[in-house]
Give the backbone structure.
Amino acid sequence: MLRIACMPVPLKSRNKRSGAPALEPPRFMPHLPVLSKSQIDHLGDRLRAGSLNENDLRTLDDYRRSFSEAYETIVGVLRERLLLEPTGRPAKSTSSILEKLHRESIRLSQMQDIAGCRVVVADTTRQMSVATSICNTFAKTTLTDRRTNPSHGYRAVHVIIQHLDKLIEIQIRSILQHLWAELSEKLSDKDPGIKYGKGKVETQQALIKISDFIKNIEENEIKVLNLQKWNPADNELLQLQRQVIHIKSKLAKILSKAISQEAKGDQR
């Protein structure tokens, strides 16, 4: 898994030079208690141990909601400055946090996806372009390329932004990567272990094969595009490009249909 720390010019300095107005954080944010790193980690230890009480659950909820200001500010920049359409959730649910604490040996203060959003783009070329733009826009970011070492078939590019002492995760997916992830989510509703390398072996193998197929398509698409830079009028390359587009379109329809069928099954 490739991790790259990006340290561009801080946002405020860049705004002064460009003349672009700095985005203000959302107003009327609720006042929440400030927890130290050790307090957060001790809370996580108690939650992992199963020592649940009303005060700890209330503190966890306050901690979750403390990400809202950083989240809203970052989403505003993505929309207004980078002209992106992020979707997602402002805070990871309490149950999801508890599940992750039990599943992984991670400190609560180190959890990078308590708040985050997702950006879906057409292809891997646009994917890296968006990731680079985000890294160049925010002062403290880390890029993780989950395409090089996918997690049980999951492939995407993640950018972690540190803002107001909070870590906000931006998932950047191609449309095929996104459809694969959506299908995996739907299947995990019935078999929760699927996303983490558990559950039915047949389902795991099928998802891995689909993920590998998507990887091959997207890598071949890049190869064709690179060759076309040198031979833009080559008929064979144009034909290959049309074939890749056709395969991507057909696969997207198949995945969308499978997601729809799984959703209908959940409603029965």
Remarks:
- The chain has a mean pLDDT of 87.
- Residues 151 and 196 are 8 Å apart (CA to CA).
